[in-house]
Amino acid sequence: MGADYSLGTSEHSYRYYRNAVEGHWDPYEIDLEEDRENLVAMADDVDWSDEEIENSTNILGSALAMFGAGEESVTEDLAPLAVALESIEDQMFITTQMYEEAKHADFFDRYWREVINPAREAVGMGTTSPHEDRWYADEYIDLFEREEEAMHRLLDENTPENRVKAHAHYHLTVEGILAQTGYWGLTKNFDGTADDLPHLPGLVKGIKLIRGDEARHVGFGMKKVKSAIHDEGVDEEVLHSTLEDIVPLVQKTVMHVWDAVDDPRDFPGTGPGRLAQYAADRHQGRMKQMLDADTEIPELEELTALE
Ligand SMILES: [Fe+2]
Ligand SMILES: [Fe+2]
Fold first, then answer.
1. Torsion (CA) 296, 297, 301, 303 in degrees, nearest 10
2. What whole-number distance in Å separates Cα of residue 110 and Cα of residue 285?
3. How close is the Cα of 294 to the center of ligand 1, in Å?
4. What CATH number should be reported for the domain holding residue 90?
């Protein structure tokens, strides 16, 4: 490290790092009081039976429990990539991602403690833990086990192929398809525009801030995969076969949220069919941006735009 030492400030990973520093936010600064009030008021206002209240609470509970646990998993599983990456700019970027995943996990944990449980208590339902098995689809557990394995493989065999597999699990599928689909569904259903569903402004605000962070994470993974295929000679079949294995797990996970209700068509907002379609569209769009050498990876705002 001599006098000629300097950072590659024009590198995309450095620019993402700076963007993260400039966009800092605190999950404890989001006001959650209105969410709690609106959830309780909803149960009082609408003429729902106890069973209907329980069902709709469980749909939201399952979505939020899986989100929170997902953020915890990605926080825990990112470190091997930090070991595998070489440049200082990539390392700087990864430190911001690790910090941000921790904040996302913190946000969902706080939401459960300060909104979900108090609202349940107010309507006479007992408190629950987001770690109860019933919130989770088997395919979700499977997906995250495979993601952990793909990340840890980098510690033993840090090859370009294994890096593509790691990014395909982590950045493209878990963050780029599963999480994106969840943000879209939660925002659409709870931003105050859906009839018969409560307005949850704190949740929607937290998700908006999280999406801003996730744009950098997904963009970083997509750029790495694109350059592994176009510059490092990794066969694109590695990407296809990895995604073919795991994308169906995303579809099953999305459907699980509605297992609490007999007929998902009774749910007043955006239901499982539209969400599954959204997940499929996300997958197609990301593939084109990575595989076609002439198509650019979109700018940050576009990467996690909801529509
Ligand atoms: Fe996250
Ligand atoms: Fe992320």
1. 130
2. 33
3. 29
4. 1.10.620.20
20 domain residue, yes or no: no
Q: Tens digits of per-residue pLDDT, 250-291?
A: 989 988 887 766 666 667 777 788 888 888 888 888 888 888
Q: Give the Å distance between the CA of 82 and the centre of ligand 1.
A: 16
Task: Tell whether 299 is covered by a domain.
Answer: yes
26 contacts: CB under 8 Å, gap ≥ 6: 103
Q: Which domain holds residue 155?
A: 27-303
Asked if residue 18 belongs to a domain, the reply is no
Q: What is the pLDDT of residues 119-177, one digit of tens each?
A: 989 888 889 999 999 999 999 999 999 999 999 999 999 999 999 999 999 999 999 99
For residue 98, report the distance from its CA to the centre of ligand 1, in Å.
Answer: 9
> Measured between alpha carbons, how far apart are the two ends of the chain, in Å?
46
Contact 307, 26 (CB under 8 A): no
Taking the CB of residue 167, how many other CB atoms lie within 10 A of it?
A: 28
Distance 230 CA to ligand 1 centre (A): 27
**181 CA distance to ligand 1 centroid (A)?**
13
User: Is position 72 within any domain?
Assistant: yes
CB 304 within 8 A of CB 218: yes
